[in-house]
Design brief:
Order of helices and strands of chain A: HHHHH
Strand content of chain A: under 5%
Helix content of chain A: over 70%
Radius of gyration of chain B: 20 Å
Number of strands of chain B: 7
Structural class of chain A: mainly alpha
Number of helices of chain A: 5
Distance between the termini of chain A: 45 Å
Order of helices and strands of chain B: EEHEEHEEEHHHHHHH
Strand content of chain B: 5-15%
Oligomer: heterodimer
Shape of chain A: elongated
Strand order of the largest sheet of chain B: 2-1-5-3-4
CATH class of chain A: Mainly Alpha
Number of domains of chain A: 1
Chain lengths: ~120, ~240
């Protein structure tokens, strides 16, 4: 058992399952957005779409899914390439800094989306 | 004449590894790559170092990287390995080189040891043997044949980056070999040790292992079965 305090859910199975479920949410959301964009889009119809509560909830779900999906993916990349094995003694510090930057960015994006959609 | 480029490194005399070229007379025969190494050692440079034993694809000693693809030198014919009239031979990637084509497989064996590759069953053994039905025995086909040559694990990028934490395709194939064995009773303990972000789930299913396995085995499929068992156990 290899533990890691920085992985999203601490267990491999949960991370794996969350990544797959979130990908389905994102797929559904992007199909909806693509469908809307393929039709005639103007400011009024776009605004009307995002004024509906279900769309706000769906957008929030997509934003949270994107954040969780991104974190699990980025965490895998960081723990592959930004390690002491790859970068020498500074590897762990560099990885932690990148993980901190990525997590703050993702939290920031989610808050930003909430402010834009729900305000 | 076959042009062979060989990875050379003797830590006692060389500052860094280098490639050495040889022109080998194969007399137009479709030799195995191991035969070419034997010719180089006998006729060109007796210091060329590599592992070999059975020379028929059973012992798994001569796993090498030939023109970019891992395989057993003894059962890889030149007609399969040579590209553009040239053969480039390197040690298995990702493991520390001891000398020339010989790698230190300690990390590989440590992961193999981690999956406890032996039957666990605390109930008293029957007088003759623990019986299996033909169907139960069939579950082990495609799993027990592994010869631990390390061609699969050393072709896997996840194993290159995390050889101390990712079990790797060879170890996971053996993990499933005992998870699938009807006589083994340690399924729960085995699964509990695998449910972390690295041991199994560092596999991203790119199937390099399947592509190179000289025995035609499918570690990716076995890893998929382990994932399913972990999912069934947790839900």
């Amino acid at each position: 058992m290899v533990t890691s305090v920085t992985s999203f859910s601490r267990t491999g199975l949960s991370d794996w399952l969350i990544q797959r479920v979130t990908s389905l949410v994102l797929l559904a959301y992007f199909i909806l957005i693509a469908y809307q964009l393929l039709g005639s889009v103007d400011y009024t119809s776009w605004r009307a779409l995002f004024d509906q509560t279900w769309m706000k909830v769906f957008t929030l779900m997509a934003a949270l899914s994107l954040a969780a999906h991104s974190w699990i993916g980025l965490w895998s990349v960081f723990t592959d390439y930004l390690t002491e094995r790859m970068l020498g003694p500074k590897g762990n510090a560099i990885r932690l800094a990148c993980q901190l930057g990525a997590s703050l960015s993702l939290v920031g994006y989610v808050i930003w989306i909430i402010v834009v959609v729900w305000s | 004449m076959l042009q062979v480029s060989l990875y050379r490194y003797n830590p006692e005399t060389d500052d860094a590894p280098f490639m050495q070229d040889f022109s080998v007379d194969t007399s137009g025969r479709d030799l195995m790559v191991l035969d070419v190494l034997e010719l180089i050692k006998a006729e060109h440079d007796g210091s060329v170092t590599y592992r070999r034993s059975c020379r028929e694809g059973v012992c798994g000693s001569d796993g090498l990287n030939m023109n970019g693809k891992n395989g057993l030198a003894c059962i890889t014919p030149l007609s399969d390995a040579v590209k553009g009239g040239k053969l480039v031979i390197r040690p298995l990637p990702g493991l520390p080189v001891i000398r020339d084509l010989v790698v230190d497989m300690s990390l590989f064996y440590a992961q193999y040891e981690k999956v406890q590759p032996y039957l666990q069953n605390p109930t008293p053994a029957p007088a003759i043997e623990r019986l299996q039905s033909p169907e139960e025995r069939a579950h082990l086909d495609g799993l027990y044949e592994c010869i631990l040559c390390a061609c699969c694990s050393t072709s896997c990028p996840s194993f290159w980056w995390n050889p101390d934490r990712f079990v790797g395709p060879a170890g996971l194939l053996q993990a499933y070999r005992f998870l699938a064995d009807s006589r083994d009773t340690a399924t729960e303990e085995r699964l509990a040790k695998l449910d972390d972000p690295f041991s199994v789930f560092r596999c991203h299913g790119i199937q390099n292992c399947v592509n190179v396995c000289p025995k035609g085995l499918n570690p990716t499929k076995a890893i998929g079965h382990i994932r399913t068992m972990l999912l069934n156990r947790a839900t």
